Amino acid sequence: MSNKAIYPGTFDPITNGHISIITRATLIFSKIILAITTNPSKNPMFSIEKRVECAKEAVAHLKNVEIIRFSGLLIHLAQEQKTNVLIRGLRNVEDFENETKRYHMNKYLNPTLEIIFLMATEESTYLSSSLIKEIAQNGGNVESLLPASAFKALTNVYQT
User: Fold this and answer.
1) Which residues contact 116 (CB under 8 A, 6 or more apart)?
2) Residue 43 lies in domain
3) At which residues is there a site annotated Transition state stabilizer (predicted)?
4) Would residue 101 show up in a list of annotated catalytic residues for this protein?
5) Averaged over 98-107, what is the pLDDT?
6) Among residues 4, 24, 91, 107, which one is catalytic?
7) Does the annotation flag 126 for ligand binding?
8) Quick check: is 51 catalytic?
9) For residue 153, what are the contacts with CB-CB under 8 A and spacing of at least 6?
């Protein structure tokens, strides 16, 4: 049994919803590995370096969180990190359907892998990085939805 878990994602940008999941996961596991993917199919706005930098600042107060970057299959990352536990957040039914597919494929690829789903808090059920970027691009105020580091990075992109 592992006492560490991987929370994978693009985190483009990291949101307060992500921070909520990470914070609650640190209460369950002695170590959380925040694994930021280079997944080019998502066409991220921010470079992997900027996403890692924003995440490091956002979780600096959490001493048992390590941030790494990765590409490839999660099952390989889990083997490399010597853990069989992944953390995923769920906001709504759409997330549940998408995560169910990923869950079964990951279990097919590695039957020992366990995925722990944490529900979004009421305040973050509507948060998504994509929606936040869209609002910011159109001049909306997203400051209260993001950690300071991510808000600053987003502001720098859309500053005129």
Assistant:
1) 5, 25, 28, 85, 86, 87, 88
2) 4-158
3) 18
4) no
5) 92
6) 91
7) yes
8) no
9) 13, 46, 50, 53, 54
The radius of gyration computed from the CA coordinates of the chain, to the nearest angstrom, equals 15
Determine how many CB atoms are found less than 10 A away from the CB of residue 70: 19
Burial of 132 (0-12, 13-18, 19+ CB in 10 A): buried
Mean of per-residue pLDDT scores for the chain: 93
pLDDT band at residue 1, thresholds of 50, 70 and 90? very low
In the residue annotation, 42 being an active-site residue is answered as: yes
Evaluate if pTM is beyond 0.70. Answer: yes
Cβ atoms of residues 70 and 35 within 8 Å:
yes
Instruction: Based on the residue annotation, tell me whether 144 is a catalytic residue of this protein.
Output: no
Per-residue confidence (pLDDT) for residue 41, from 0 to 100? 77
Residue from 20, 50, 51, 129 carrying the catalytic annotation? 129
Distance CA 60, CA 78 (A): 23
Instruction: List the CATH number of the domain containing 132.
Output: 3.40.50.620
* Domains contained in the chain, number: 1
> CA 141: distance to chain centroid?
22
